[in-house]
Design the sequence.
């Protein structure tokens, strides 16, 4: 359900017999806790989403290198790797849906 790295500290048990990362309830709770931790670290949901995808250390280095703790400023300065830029909040399914609707003439 969620894309957890096998070695991450998410509080999910994993061994040769079972892997709690595949339990929808436990993995959703772990995801929410992890996102809250990332939000507490960065103070911004966009940076928290980037850290989930890119890794918190990479985002922290980008913030330290530029002095900007703002996802959109890091995006404008081309600090994020190209692959990560395509999975930015601007390219989320909801944004894609809005672009599709507007191109079809929908005003709602």
Sequence:
């Amino acid at each position: 359900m969620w894309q957890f790295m096998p070695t991450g500290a998410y509080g999910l048990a994993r061994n040769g017999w079972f892997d709690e990362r595949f339990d929808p309830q436990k993995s959703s709770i772990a995801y929410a806790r992890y996102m809250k931790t990332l939000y507490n670290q960065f103070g911004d949901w966009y940076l928290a989403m980037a850290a989930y995808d890119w890794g918190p250390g990479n985002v922290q280095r980008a913030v330290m290198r530029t002095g900007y703790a703002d996802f959109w400023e890091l995006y404008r300065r081309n600090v994020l790797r190209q692959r990560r830029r395509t999975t930015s909040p601007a390219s989320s399914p909801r944004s894609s849906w809005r672009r599709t609707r507007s191109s079809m003439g929908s005003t709602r």
